[in-house]
Design brief:
Elements (H helix, E strand, L loop, with lengths): L2 H11 L22 H10 L6 E12 L2 E12 L3 E8 L2 E8 L4 E5 L4 E5 L2 H7 L5 H8 L11 E6 L2 E6 L7 E6 L6 E8 L4 E7 L2 E4 L2 E4 L1 E8 L2 E14 L14 E2 L4
Parallel strand pairs: 6-16
Antiparallel strand pairs: 1-2, 1-15, 2-3, 3-4, 4-5, 5-6, 7-8, 8-9, 9-10, 10-11, 11-14, 12-13, 14-15
Length: 258
């Protein structure tokens, strides 16, 4: 695993924005009689509304003997753009720019870049991803398309949702908090490919009557290799005027996805 993978994992799980959203009224104790349909509906309603985000956070990345602490800036325009800059001591290491149609990325250490579709993000994550899924993760919403094919039960005072029938190489489930109906954790296992991807969210902060995570951790494994990423937020501004500067430097080598 390298910096490119760590930057993407951070992107996929950044969660914040502040603006209007439906007020969600939950309970400290999970309701055993609540139906899957109502859990899914309330989780969907927990998604916040916003126009733009500007945020700064600290990201710690670990893979084998490689440990990095990064300062990461994020800018986002809902349904339109996601912009990320990773740096150390004020020096830019990488930038990524995502729209519903494309993904562009460059890394200053290796002088490499990618400019194409979502195959790069899908390759890093180990599962298909598009802008809608990435944005859903950024907002603390499920990356899975929840519908009537999901069943629920209560586990450790959280609502557990999973498909009635799991696919052989796409075994997944999620846990939803009963108080705010935001994601507590999501897990995806692909045993044929020996892959596992897990997201665990920390406490949620309430801003403007809507809940947003304040920290999260990622564990991604493939074969014998494990990557850990911890994200903590330092500052969040919302509905502000922002720009999305992104230009791939001349002379960089293009990355190709097989």
């Amino acid at each position: 695993m390298n910096l490119k993978f760590s930057v993407f994992l951070f992107i996929s799980l950044f969660i914040t924005s502040c603006s209007g959203g439906k007020m969600i009224v939950g309970s400290d104790t999970a309701n055993f009689s609540m139906s899957s349909k109502d859990i899914i509906k309330t989780h969907s309603e927990a998604q916040p509304g916003f126009s733009t985000i500007a945020a700064r956070m600290h990201v710690k990345y670990e893979s084998g003997n490689n440990i990095q602490s990064l300062t990461v800036s994020l800018r986002m325009e809902k349904d339109q753009k996601i912009w990320i800059k990773a740096s150390i001591l004020g020096i830019t290491l990488a930038k990524i720019y995502i729209t519903p149609e494309s993904v562009s990325y460059y890394e200053t250490i290796t002088n490499t870049y990618f400019d194409g579709d979502f195959s790069l993000l899908s390759d890093w994550l180990g599962t298909d991803i598009n802008f809608e899924k990435a944005q859903g993760i950024l907002l603390g919403q499920s990356i899975f398309e929840l519908d009537t094919k999901y069943i629920s039960n209560v586990v450790d005072n959280k609502y557990r949702l999973q498909p009635k029938m799991q696919l052989h190489n796409f075994i997944h489930y999620l846990l939803v908090n009963p108080d705010n109906f935001k994601i507590a954790s999501e897990s995806l296992s692909q045993p044929v490919d020996n892959r596992m991807f897990t997201i665990n969210y920390g406490d949620y902060q309430r801003i403007g009557g809507v809940y947003y995570p304040s920290a999260f951790k990622i564990i991604a494994t493939q074969n014998e290799k494990k990557t850990k990423i911890a994200v903590n937020y330092k500052k969040i501004d919302y509905n502000v005027s922002i720009r999305f500067p992104f230009t791939i430097p001349n002379g960089y080598e293009e990355i190709h996805i097989n």
